[in-house]
Specification:
mainly alpha; 125 residues
Amino acid sequence: MQASERLSAAWGIYEDHGELGPAWVRAVCLLTRQALEQELRERVEVLVPGAGKGTVTLQLITLRVRGDGLGDAWSIAWTWNALSQACHHKGYELHPSAEQVRGWMNSVEAFLRAPTSSGTPCPSR
């Protein structure tokens, strides 16, 4: 499954989550995070062969150092962290709002559409 397909599935749940109750938030965040991680892995592998096999933290650092620009890399790191926290929700915490989730999804969608540092689309597209 391509990263864009995962994100499309997340948008589908986001737009029609009536029967899922509060579980929709975690489902959408998980699919969105998986799409981000897949795209990140593919981009980092293009930048530094072999780095796509490292941890997500290593991949985020690689993107900052060798990638598409510092601003975008920081934004992607922040989004990944927010999605991870939402996926590992604690019972005493509030769920993220629909607006927060939509913002994270928009950030990942922009990352998927952005060209790589060489100006070409990522090989997965």
